Amino acid sequence: MAAALGGCSFAIPGGEPAPAWKNVSDDVTGSIPHKTTPTLSHSLDQEDWRRANAALGVALDPQGAGATVNWDNPESHARGSFTPVGQPYPSEGKVCRAFLAEVGTKESHEQLQGTACRDKSADWALIDVRPWRKA
Fold this sequence. Notes:
alpha+beta, five-stranded antiparallel beta sheet
C-alpha cells in the first residue's frame, strides 16, 4: 500500500514550493517583545528634545564636571535638567552613564532615571528611562 501511495503526487503551478523557512510569519507575538527606542518624555516636541539632548550630552560627558545641566525651550515653556549619577562605564564597546532627569511642561512634571550610552563618535542614545524611585 505504501508503494502505491508513494507514487501519488502533483505539480504545483509556478514551480517548486517555497522552502519552509520562507513561510515564517512576520507577525509579532507576545513571547518576543518588540524593541522600541526609549524616549525621555512623551510630552516633549521635537525642538524640546533637541534642546534636552544637547544638555544630556554635556551632563554625561566623561570629561565634564559631573554637575547638573539645565535646558529649556522658551517657545513651548518646556524645561528640565540632567544630573549624572556615578562614573561612566564601558558596555559592549560603548561608554554608558546613569542619570537623573527632571522634565516639566505646561501639562506635567516628571522625575526620571535612566541610562544612556554612546560610541566614540555618536551622540548619547537613551538605553533605559523610567520614573525615578528613591532608593
